[in-house]
């Protein structure tokens, strides 16, 4: 009996270590979640302009009290914002807000925070012109690459734009992201969050200028048809036509 008891000790110790590891992992997971939430709140405030460039964020202690989290959680949140170039961390203070030109503008979180900020027409035009440089070539490559499943996704999104006006915005976004995916180019595909944010911010503005509730479905489907049929130059031309019209409408909206 004594031998059996002794032989069971390593197993019991192993179970105890496993439990401690699980508790520790859960604690780390919770801390990471808290830090992400704090970074989300501060990042959104910076992008909205609540903290202008050059301003100093509240001290770590003040942020601890404001968010009700530990100093470790605050420091991790500030590290996240520093990695996105929104702030330059400073000891004993929360950090100094950087000029927008230094921000990681293509970071998915930064793009998401921009969507919650007041409309910035210069930003919308800059994003549209970036799309103008990228999406026509992505459409060309999609026509050459001929990924049938990806091309079907373009068609489905285009048809959804026409079928349900309430879902037209999301379907429009899905259409353009699907074109990037169909290109087969991993760098184009990685720009999906940028295109998604650009469209989410610009489509309501351009539709208001046109006085229509949704985008030009026929032109979207012409892009799909050219890609499906392998007409690379036509696909690029139709995509350029569509996005150039977006740039024109944004310029009209700005006055």
From TrEMBL:
One Gene Ontology MF term: DNA-binding transcription factor activity
Xref: Pfam families: FCD, GntR
Domain called HTH gntR-type: residue spans: 32-100
Keywords annotated in UniProt: DNA-binding, Transcription, Transcription regulation
InterPro entries in the cross-refs: GntR_C, TF_FadR/GntR_C, Tscrpt_reg_HTH_GntR, WH-like_DNA-bd_sf, WH_DNA-bd_sf
Protein name: FadR family transcriptional regulator
UniProt-listed SMART domains: FCD, HTH_GNTR
Taxonomic superkingdom: Bacteria
């Amino acid at each position: 009996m004594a031998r059996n008891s002794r032989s069971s000790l390593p197993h019991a110790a192993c179970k105890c270590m496993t439990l401690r590891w699980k508790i520790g992992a859960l604690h780390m997971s919770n801390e990471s979640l808290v830090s992400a939430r704090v970074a989300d709140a501060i990042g959104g405030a910076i992008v909205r302009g609540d903290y202008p460039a050059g301003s100093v964020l509240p001290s770590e202690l003040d942020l601890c009290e404001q968010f009700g989290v530990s100093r470790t959680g605050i420091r991790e949140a500030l590290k996240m914002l520093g990695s996105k170039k929104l702030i330059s961390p400073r000891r004993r203070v929360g950090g100094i807000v950087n000029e927008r030109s230094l921000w990681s503008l293509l970071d998915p979180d930064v793009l998401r925070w921009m969507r919650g900020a007041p409309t910035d027409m210069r930003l919308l035009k800059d994003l549209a012109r970036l799309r103008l440089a990228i999406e026509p070539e992505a459409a060309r490559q999609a026509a050459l690459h001929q990924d049938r499943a990806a091309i079907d996704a373009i068609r489905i999104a285009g048809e959804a734009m026409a079928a349900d006006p309430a879902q037209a915005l999301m379907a429009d976004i899905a259409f353009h992201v699907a074109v990037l995916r169909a290109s087969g180019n991993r760098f184009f595909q990685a720009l999906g969050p940028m295109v998604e944010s650009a469209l989410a911010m610009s489509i309501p503005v351009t539709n208001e200028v046109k006085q229509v509730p949704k985008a030009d479905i026929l032109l979207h489907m012409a892009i799909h048809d050219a890609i499906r049929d392998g007409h690379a130059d036509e696909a690029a031309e139709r995509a350029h036509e569509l996005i150039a019209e977006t740039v024109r409408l944004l310029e009209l909206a700005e006055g």
